[in-house]
Design a protein that fits this description.
Blueprint (H helix, E strand, L loop, with lengths): L1 E3 H7 L8 H10 L3 E6 L7 E13 L5 E8 L13 E5 L9 E5 L4 E2 L3 E2 L3 E3 L2 E3 L2 E2 L17 H5 L1 H5 L7 H5 L5 E5 L10 H12 L29 E4 L11 E10 L9 H9 L7 H13 L3 E5 L6 E6 L5 E3 L5 E3 L5 E5 L4 E4 L3 E2 L12 E8 L1 H10 L5 H6 L8 H16 L2 E2 L4 E4 L7 E4 L2 H6 L5 H10 L3 E4 L5 E5 L10 H12 L20 H15 L3 E2 L5 E2 L3 H4 L24 E2 L4 H13 L5 E8 L21 H10 L5 E8 L1 E3 L8 E2 L2 H14 L5 E4 L5 E10 L5 E8 L1 H6 L7 E6 H7 L15 E10 L4 H11 L4 E10 L8 E10 L8 H19 L2 E2 L1
Parallel strand pairs: 13-16, 28-31
Antiparallel strand pairs: 1-12, 2-12, 3-4, 3-6, 4-5, 6-11, 7-8, 9-10, 14-22, 14-23, 14-24, 15-22, 16-19, 17-18, 19-20, 20-21, 25-27, 26-27, 29-30, 31-32, 32-38, 33-34, 35-36, 36-37, 37-38, 39-41, 39-42, 40-41
């Protein structure tokens, strides 16, 4: 919200010496965040100029600049040379004869940008033709200001080259820009900003919409409602949550309006200062009133209506062409303004329709001032992607008590500057429900904030913000009725916030809480998760985070079988995107897309990992109860809530493509392969004190011949790793031979519940012995290794498969697996006979379990 200082001085007794920075500081003290200060730092010569010639000149860099001559009146430094001001300009939205704004050498633009004559593009440019952004009038820097478009043709016709543009555009006036939070919608007006400044600084505030102050000449005196006004019918057959879409609708008529009349210069200046472009008298009047008191208005051409105006909800299939010439399909939740023929005229509180807008031929104007439901307006604005100045105010809450004053002010301005005549009839359909006071404990601010807030200060603050305070049920309580412009004040804690901000948030000390104990530290699960993430990072992978939302076609691209339980995904009732309505059942579902994006952006050698939750659908959906907010839910309700939540195990997944080791003097590059994916899983397991059993597996989305199952010694599956299937790689646009793995972190946490006890290292020598075992081709090497470990005794340190042989000596359908067994005793040197006995026991165990025969 932009607040010109000169406008603010009319609504509050701002000290003469107060600057824009002082005003911003006062507003910050009551919770309005400063966004910036505009104006006040510009110095001339800044003048009106008339473009005499425009000569386009293409440049070597492909850009075309304009070599211009401009008539700047007596200000031109080149008059002594008998030629007009010569200026280089890069914009192209103006033509010969246009009036523009020129800053000449010696001038200073906002931000301390000093202007001087300088050589550029082969010419000496004696100044600059300015855009709105360069003058601090807005963010548009795509084209320069054409005054006939900004002020209107009639106003521009009265301008002369050389005229002071600083005074013309009000650029000497400082403008304070503040950020308005959603609960402070009343500050989207000068009335609200002035009220907050008066509250912070203690000066008097003059409410332009308060008819109760007859001594204030600036206050508007609304006309009383009559029975002879324009017919209004307010209906709503589908209110949202019982709230009617419109609870007040006021209509006023002004006849004989000269819509071609130029808005007064002071109005145009103020609209420009607050970031709005003057358009026409009726539009400027409604915008000015909205910026002054915060009440959006709409002006209809009465001659286009059919006898009455009113509201209703949209019907299925109904459409409306809005003022931006877009045909919009309406939703049954949209509240419409309609005429007597039930023809849609506008989306209430959002944007008007093209059929009833004020045009050049309009003579009779119907002014609409209404109060619409904030939720209804907010939903319509988002549904149609129309964030208008009106919707921005209605969805945050407009003061319903200011409606009549806003309409009267608009009528007065149209009569004064448009030559119109106001009808005596005033229609005011008022269905507002009176707000009820609520009880407030005066000790609550002290107990909530931790500072001492005396009773008198609390009561005085509440009255200062507009509340009506009366005696309560006890000495420490009062009855509080918030003002109509504060719909956000409904409970005691919200009043506590008001008390705290008016005294000043800076008065609340920063005190760190002191724990009663040193804390319990990390849980076992948290420690394991940290170890898993750290280990993967130590392997050279980069941690990423991805959104857990996937599309319905992803499971087909991943090659999941029709009966695969991972296809049973939970669907979101209100997804962020219709293209991704499901929750992932595997971290790889979304991690692989992250890898694809990195590769597509040039990171061809990428290795990433993610630790996150997956969601498993319940066999039968369970409806969760909706407890009230008045008290803590009982144990049965909490249990029912938890039972309705689908299981969400935590997984760790990783994926890599390209080179893991770059080429260099040490040798050629090495690409990531399936062995790396399995190795990373084994490293994770070892880091938490577990040894995994690796066996061949056939599981999507991996290559059936290059996929390993990773399991605990008892057979519990931890995860899978290997190379992705070529069809999956092609379907997901991943590089060939991409590898990936996924582990169930919850299984690792459960398997490491008992603390690992460190054992003393043996200082005695190791004993190595090799065995070669012939087994059937279908026997997994992991099964043979498990059998060897089971009978080798506690002295066995490692078992390593170092050779696999298939050939004539092994026999058809057979393979030879060569293992190196390493033994070491903790208290002695093992003898040859002891090692041989342990080896023979291990071989016998492998023979019994897998049919292995020693070569």
């Amino acid at each position: 919200m932009y607040a010109p200082v000169s406008w603010l001085r009319e609504l509050a007794d701002v000290p003469p010496a107060a600057t824009g920075a002082d005003i911003a500081a006062s507003l910050v003290r009551v919770g309005l965040e400063e966004e910036g200060l505009h104006g006040g730092d510009l110095r001339g010569p800044l003048v009106v100029g008339r473009v005499l010639t425009v000569q386009p000149e293409p440049q070597k860099n492909g850009k075309t600049i304009n070599w211009c001559t401009v008539d700047v009146g007596a200000n031109g430094q080149q008059l002594t040379e008998g030629k007009p001001q010569e200026i280089v300009c890069g914009a192209h939205n103006f033509a010969v004869g246009d009036l523009v704004v020129c800053v000449l050498p010696g001038g200073v633009l906002p931000g301390g940008f000093e202007i001087s004559a300088r050589k550029t593009y082969g010419h000496v440019s004696n100044g600059m033709i300015c855009s709105a952004k360069e003058l601090g009038l807005g963010d548009d820097h795509s084209g320069i200001i054409v005054l006939s478009e900004l002020l209107g043709p009639e106003a521009a016709a009265r301008l002369e080259p050389g005229q002071d543009a600083i005074e013309l555009l009000g650029l000497a006036d400082e403008v304070v820009e503040v950020n308005v939070t959603p609960d402070r919608g009343y500050c989207f007006s000068m009335r609200g900003i002035a009220r907050e400044y008066a509250l912070s600084s203690g000066v008097a505030f003059h409410d332009p919409a308060d008819p109760a102050d007859p001594a204030d000449p600036a206050a508007v005196k609304p006309a009383e409602p009559t029975t002879t006004g324009y017919a209004v019918h307010v209906t709503d057959d589908a209110p949202l949550d019982g709230r009617p879409g419109c609870d007040r609708y006021l209509a006023r008529i002004v006849r004989g309006v000269d819509v071609s009349a130029t808005s007064p210069a002071w109005m145009q200046k103020r609209l420009t200062q607050v970031g709005m472009r003057p358009i026409s008298l009726p539009v400027d009047v409604t915008n000015y009133v909205m910026m002054l008191v915060g009440q959006p208005l709409h002006a209809f051409d009465l001659d286009t209506l059919s006898g009455s105006v009113g509201t209703r909800r949209a019907r299925p299939g109904e459409k409306l062409t809005t003022l931006d010439d877009v045909v919009r399909a309406l939703d049954p939740e949209d509240l419409l303004i309609v005429d007597g023929a039930d023809t849609p005229l506008a989306i209430a509180g959002v944007m008007g329709g093209a059929s009833s807008e004020v045009s050049d031929t309009t003579e009779t104007v119907l002014i609409e001032a209404a109060h619409f439901d904030p939720v209804t307006v907010a939903r319509s604005a988002r549904r149609h992607r129309l964030a208008t100045e009106a919707s921005k105010r209605f969805e945050r809450g407009v003061d319903p008590a200011v409606t009549a004053a806003a309409a009267q002010l608009a009528v007065d301005l149209l009569v004064e500057y448009g030559g119109g005549t106001a009808d005596e009839g005033v229609t005011d359909v008022d269905h507002r429900v009176p707000r009820e006071p609520f009880e407030f404990d005066l000790a609550m601010p002290t107990s909530y904030i931790g500072l001492d807030y005396p009773r008198d200060e609390v009561v005085g603050t509440l009255e200062a913000i507009g509340c009506q305070v009366t005696a309560g049920g006890s000495d420490r309580t009062v009855q509080v009725l918030p003002p109509t412009w504060r719909p956000d004040l409904t409970t005691g804690p919200e009043l506590v916030e008001e008390v705290a901000r008016v005294r000043g948030y800076d008065q609340i000390p920063s005190v760190l809480p002191q724990p009663k104990s040193a804390g319990r530290g990390l849980t076992h699960g948290q420690r394991i998760r940290r170890v898993v993430a750290t280990t993967l990072a130590h392997q050279g992978l980069v941690e990423v985070l991805s959104y857990p939302f996937v599309g319905r076609d992803l499971f087909d691209r991943l090659g999941y079988a029709a009966e695969d339980p991972r296809r049973a995904a939970v669907a979101l009732a209100n997804p962020l995107s219709d293209e991704a309505p499901l929750l992932r059942t595997s971290v790889l579902d979304t991690l692989l897309d992250t890898l694809r994006r990195n590769v597509a952006r040039g990171a061809r050698d990428a290795a990433v990992y993610e630790v996150g939750l997956v969601t498993r659908a319940l066999p039968q959906p369970v409806r969760a109860p909706v407890p009230g907010i008045e008290s803590r839910p009982d144990d049965a309700t909490l249990a029912a809530l938890l039972a309705a939540v689908p299981p969400q195990p935590r997984h760790a997944a990783y994926a890599a493509s390209g080179d893991l080791e770059p080429a260099g003097p040490w040798g050629p590059a090495r690409k990531a392969d399936a062995a790396d994916a399995v190795g990373w899983a084994l490293a994770v397991a070892r880091s938490v004190g577990l040894d995994l059993v690796v066996s061949a597996a056939d599981r999507a989305p991996w290559h059936p011949g290059r996929c390993a199952q990773l399991a605990l010694a008892d057979g519990t599956v931890v995860g899978h790793a290997g190379e992705l299937h070529p069809k999956v790689v092609a379907a997901l646009d991943l590089p060939p031979r991409t590898v990936a793995g996924e582990l169930d972190v919850d299984v690792l946490v459960a398997a490491t519940g008992e603390p690992v006890q460190a054992s003393a290292l043996s200082t005695y020598p190791v004993a190595h012995t090799d065995v070669a075992l012939v087994v059937d081709e279908r026997v997994a090497a992991a099964a043979v290794e498990s059998a060897l470990r089971a009978a080798a005794g506690e002295s066995l340190e490692t078992v390593v498969l170092f050779d696999v042989y298939r050939g004539e000596q092994a026999g058809a359908g057979k393979k030879s697996l060569a293992y190196r067994l390493t033994f070491r005793a903790p208290d002695r040197t093992l003898t040859t006979d002891e090692v041989s006995a342990l080896r023979d026991a291990a071989v016998a165990s492998a023979g019994s379990a897998t049919g292995a025969v020693q070569r």
